[in-house]
């Protein structure tokens, strides 16, 4: 009787076929990908946070980037190890049901918070490129980011009811609450869909302004004109940087999440091939978590200079301490 219950519990989980019939090499490759994402993403996003702390007068965009990095740090630190425990079937041995709920709550919270923050960055960059000023002050942006995360925590809290360990110890959705799960996921779907539509519209409106990014300011003073051009070029690079962040987010997180929401609202009778695809898609969001700092380093020269000065200052402080000890 116990074996029958265990088998039914496994069969009702969407990823059961992939964990039991997919070649071990695929699972090992998935673990290597998550480990690489943690290895690159955690130091990279911590660097973003440290660089932000050194900015004397952060802008609204700086605060959005800061909160995005915080979300990625939490997602990598909590969901990365959890996914590895689940797919390696170690979770069933010792992890309590509370941690299953916590895993999904943090995952959903980071999804929603990242979505709203990326939309906010698009609105800010649109205003900068069209009106040459940010639509909100740095203080309001800081408050907006904090409120977005708090609201995302509230929206992710149903996971404590919807997600738990199955009778066999597997971490997944509670099948007895399928109707409530459909409602909650419908809310997630609307938030993600509307946010990404707004973000796309903002960046599409910006495209014509890129042609005028280096236009000559209406003044006869050469130094003022040069300063104006440098400011516009910096704004253009920052906008391109955040646009790339959105593109990575769209294909590594938004699209897979929407796909999963639609699938979870339907029946779960899928084969091994589809389960393997689902397992892969739902782990793609780790790409966004480690790609963002790399994009900042690649495109944003100001971020590179600030990061470089941060390490140089740390090196100088170490030298001073060493001399003092001598």
TrEMBL record:
Subcellular location: Cell membrane
Topology versus the membrane: Multi-pass membrane protein
Annotated GO CC locations: plasma membrane
UniProt domain G-protein coupled receptors family 1 profile: residue ranges: 44-296
GO molecular function list: G protein-coupled peptide receptor activity
Organism: Dreissena polymorpha
Gene3D superfamilies: Rhodopsin 7-helix transmembrane proteins (1.20.1070.10)
SUPFAM superfamilies named among the record's database cross-references: Family A G protein-coupled receptor-like
InterPro entries reported for this sequence: GPCR_Rhodpsn (IPR000276), GPCR_Rhodpsn_7TM (IPR017452)
UniProt xrefs under Pfam families: 7tm_1 (PF00001)
Chain segments annotated as transmembrane: 30-51, 63-84, 104-123, 143-162, 182-206, 240-265, 277-299
Name of the molecule in the record: G-protein coupled receptors family 1 profile domain-containing protein
Tree of life domain: Eukaryota
